Amino acid sequence: MSWIGRTLPRLEDPALLRGLGRYFADLARGAQAVKFVRSPMAAGVITGIDLPDPEDIRGHIFLARDLEAGGVRPVQAVLDRPDYRRVPHPALAGARVVFTGQAVAMVVAETEALAEDLAEQVFVDIEPEDPVISIGDALAEDARPVHPETPGNVMVEGAMRTPGVDQAFTDAACVVELNLRSQRQTAMPMEGRGGVADYDAASGRVTLYASVQMPHMLRTGLADALAIDEGLLRVVAPDVGGGFGSKMALFPEYVALVWACFRLKRKLAWIEDRRENFLAGSHSRDQIFSVKGAFSAEGRLLAIDGDLRSNVGAYSCYPVTCGVEPLMAFAELPGPYDFAHYGVRSRGITSNTAMMAPYRGVARPMLTLTMEQLMDRAGAKLGIDPVEMRRRNLVTKFPHTSPTGLVFDEASYLEAMEAAVKIADYPAFRARQAEARAGGRYLGIGLAVFSERTGYGTPAFAARKMAIVPGYESVDCEMGPSGQVTLRIGASPHGQGLKTALAQLVADRIGIAPDQIRVIAGDTDATPYGWGSFASRSMVIAGGASQFAADKVADKLRRIAGQLMEVPPETITLGDGLAMAAGTNRSLPIGDLARAIHSQSHRFPEMEPGIRTQGFYDPPGTFSNAAHICEVEVDTQTGGVRIDRFLVVEDAGLLINPMIVDGQIAGGVAQGIANALYEELIYDEYGTLLTSSLADYLPPTCAEIPPIEIHHMETLSPETVTGAKGVGEGGTIGAPAAVVSAIMDALAPFGVEINTIPATPDRIRAALREAKGPAR
Amino acid sequence: MKPASFSYHKPGSVSAALALLAQFGEEGKIIAGGQSLVPSMNFRLARPETLIDINHIAEIQGVSDQGDHLEIGAVTRHATFHHPVSPCPLGRMLTKVVANIAHYPIRQRGTFGGSLSHADPASEWCLVAVTMGAEMEIHGPAGARRVPAAQFFRGTFTTAVGRDELLARIRLPKLPEGWGTGFYEFSRRKGDFALAMALAALKVEGGTIRAARLGLGAVGAHPQRLEALEAELTGQPATPQTFAAIGARAQTMVTPSGDIHGSAEYRRELAATVIARALTRAAEDAA
Ligand SMILES: Cc1cc2nc3c(=O)[nH]c(=O)nc-3n(C[C@H](O)[C@H](O)[C@H](O)COP(=O)(O)OP(=O)(O)OC[C@H]3O[C@@H](n4cnc5c(N)ncnc54)[C@H](O)[C@@H]3O)c2cc1C
């Protein structure tokens, strides 16, 4: 009997659901509180900082000069590309501020309230400079460079042009031009950033418990910034309340926090509040894609020519850099469509706004919106049904090499779409739609088909020329004397249920039950060096490494059993907690084998005592795929959109635990709907963030998100050892495109175009007014 | 997100609360449900030195039916209205309205009097008070006075309640049987403050409107009763055309300002829509 493919309740949940989870702030008891004084201005030169009289300071105030004197170096995110502009990121701003909310001073006091009192007494004098906020501001002819290092305000740029692009546009029967914009979003993890730094006088080490996705990398980055021996640091990610990419970066606050902990030799806690998270946590999206598509009369996509602009904010995030958005957009815009001629220029543009970091989906929500709008709008011009447009253009032969050289493994782009279209029952919908329209109600249906590149190892990151190349994973596996297994992983799950899924995978390889397998993650003292959890990688990469490690355990168990039962090891099968000798009725409990190799190791002179193995995996990557179909009703008078149905046909390869996969998809779709309809960070022209609380920034709630209907296909990947593909981001990637497509379908009678997301009621009404649609 | 330090008092009577208000002057601040005050203290936008907690004053709790009106104690929770407090059109109307105020947990603590005192332009209770012609009983050092809703709201977050005064009770005149009521609000998400909302009450006989009440909220500094439109409605047929026309008239009478959730133009359009829809609901309710 196999554990793989079973909807096993998550092993993580009993603790989390009973309030027994342990988040970093739960570990803050006895700590002094840290608060940051933040810049009230987007851009300017610091001319002075007024501090209270020293005798009035109940606590400590640290400034940039204190950190500099302590040898702290700015964080440096590096890409080895000639077009990349390196900008040092100081832990505290000393000379200039470059975005509203940038940390200028750190205060330490007995309680959080006292720390806020103290922070209020620090006044930063700033000689303002012209704020550069939007992509338009930054690229303007006379734009002020945000940093001396970034003349023209372009931090990174990727460009290519196959020779046939211009000819294809000349030959095209139909050219569609898009100018699409995604406003700024933030990942909005339930738990904000922060950490508890604890000094151990005996060893002189500091342990940082922090809400992060990449604990090992954080340790390396901190050691570099503090110029200390990495051995002096331990980083622990305990339970983490959501990351979605936003907790990958080494934020400057962590550098200051750990430095102060070494300096004061005291336990310190920085627990950011929601406002800080909005101001100085990482942001995402904020892109303008201007893309032309050339089509033949039959609706075949011939060529794409695009100018992609991503606002990357004031700094390049460490370690993945500001290349994440623009370079992924550059490489992956073609999506699952088969065409030859590709021209693209993709720029990461710096501005006086908070730093961009990866957020679930990265460039793909926007590039999927772009490709799907090309299909829809070309179909409308050519009189070809949107489903048929995709049939004519989707990749169907594998492996497929994209215009940018990406190799697509076996997938089911066409089949997943056909399945979704069938389940959605287009004819029945079209009948409902016609009837509703006759009564003045506007229903629409929208389709999104996409590929999701997942589980990629070092080659993919190296191709971006990252100085720090993440990608591989290592796993240590140990079977103890009672047969219980401990799996120590470098990945760092934070809510995904990875521990359960890995336990299911390993259970099958070793022949024991998943609850016999304990997965340890997120502690640099207790796990092998690895890259944490992000980029839909953990099941594929940590899973592959776990499988290798588990297979070695199984091998050893067979050898032990073979010796004890006096049969060749190859004849032993493992299952249900037993080692069984084929062709005999003999078996031994696996626990007995484990006990023997630990407690009677002298009986096994050919073997090392104990059972400890390692697995290592660095795959090339694989592509998951899905089709999303969304049905909406648009209230043309209010501009409100209600989602009546959301359907996903997902192909993530081998499903280890279908419930966990469904959870990933549902949560992802909700965040995609947020991107399509609700969430928007708004800076005014001075760079003040107008949406710095949950009264103004609007994550949808369960009242706004419909039930998500999920169906699966299982095209096993030949490129991963398990056959599994990643599934962390697809929901977020496809949903905006499906929602926008549905809104435009609903409003087709008025010829309304949606070119900006979120498609808020205000924007929809404005589009209807412009299209001379119904007065309210 | 931690408030500046403050001292705390818990008076047991209105007179004790007034004495504390007199004692602390500018530094004293009433706290009722805390659902507006506490967030703004956490942001340190409000930094009262002294909080005077009126949650334990029995004489200003609960709803009583006084025949021609309902008397509502200031610290009556929003949740009290989840079920009709009186089997009359007004009681049923309050139940329709309350579901639109914030979220369930907030409705367990937030108070009727707190909403009126806070005077958010998008407060549903403020719209009810204005449209129904409520009367506020305000207690102060000089004793009690009564202020009609039309004079109570002075602007965004400003009312007739003085620094040393307390809103004790609200009298809401009942609607006679046979009236229908309708409420419509548009907000971005369930539980959010309205972008626009309207409250209507209609007396309809043989398809003709005999009397009307109409109020609009969230579109100006404070909710307003549209008496001119009430007069225009009277005598008209209760039809979608009438309601759309009244909505369109309202659109020309309001001058909302735009914000990040909607431009001025959008809000003007929305005013017309919510008015037409509230009237439609009221007519359906009357039928
Ligand atoms: C997420 C969220 C969503 C919300 N959505 C809505 C909504 O959709 N609609 C809505 O109407 N409200 C909404 N609210 C506000 C909520 O209804 C508040 O409860 C209400 O505005 C204030 O009532 P309170 O009793 O909590 O007052 P408090 O917060 O205690 O006080 C508010 C102000 O009124 C003063 N005050 C209170 N009582 C008196 C009194 N008797 N006499 C004199 N002064 C007094 C206080 O000094 C303070 O200045 C929302 C709140 C939250 C947190």
UniProtKB/TrEMBL annotation, chain A:
**Keywords, sorted A to Z:** Molybdenum, Oxidoreductase
Q: Which residues does the UniProt record annotate as the domain Aldehyde oxidase/xanthine dehydrogenase a/b hammerhead? A: 18-130
Q: Which domain of life is it from?
A: Bacteria
What are the recorded GO MF terms, alphabetically? caffeine oxidase activity; iron ion binding
The UniProt entry, under SUPFAM superfamilies, shows:
CO dehydrogenase molybdoprotein N-domain-like, Molybdenum cofactor-binding domain
Q: Which SMART domains match?
A: Ald_Xan_dh_C
Listed EC numbers: 1.17.5.2
Q: Which InterPro entries match?
A: Ald_Oxase/Xan_DH_a/b, Ald_Oxase/Xan_DH_a/b_sf, Ald_Oxase/xanthine_DH-like, AldOxase/xan_DH_MoCoBD1, AldOxase/xan_DH_MoCoBD2, AldOxase/xan_DH_Mopterin-bd_sf
Transmembrane annotation, as ranges: none
Q: What is this protein called?
A: Caffeine dehydrogenase subunit alpha
From TrEMBL, chain B:
Q: Which PROSITE patterns match?
A: FAD_PCMH (PS51387)
> Per the UniProt entry, what species is this protein from, by scientific name?
Pseudogemmobacter humi
Phylogenetic placement of the source organism: Bacteria, Pseudomonadati, Pseudomonadota, Alphaproteobacteria, Rhodobacterales
Tagged with keyword Oxidoreductase: yes
Name under which the protein is recorded? Caffeine dehydrogenase subunit beta
Q: Name one Pfam family in it.
A: CO_deh_flav_C
Q: Give the encoding gene's name.
A: cdhB
The protein's matches in InterPro entries, at most eight in alphabetical order, are given as:
CO_DH_flav_C, CO_DH_flav_C_dom_sf, Diverse_Substr_Oxidored, FAD-bd_PCMH, FAD-bd_PCMH-like_sf, FAD-bd_PCMH_sub1, FAD-bd_PCMH_sub2, Mopterin_DH_FAD-bd
FAD-binding PCMH-type domain location, by residue? 1-177
The catalytic activity of this protein is classed by the Enzyme Commission as 1.17.5.2
Q: Which Gene3D superfamilies match?
A: 3.30.465.10, CO dehydrogenase flavoprotein, C-terminal domain, Uridine Diphospho-n-acetylenolpyruvylglucosamine Reductase, domain 2
Q: Which GO terms describe its molecular function?
A: caffeine oxidase activity; FAD binding
Q: Which keywords fit this entry according to its UniProt record?
A: FAD, Flavoprotein, Oxidoreductase
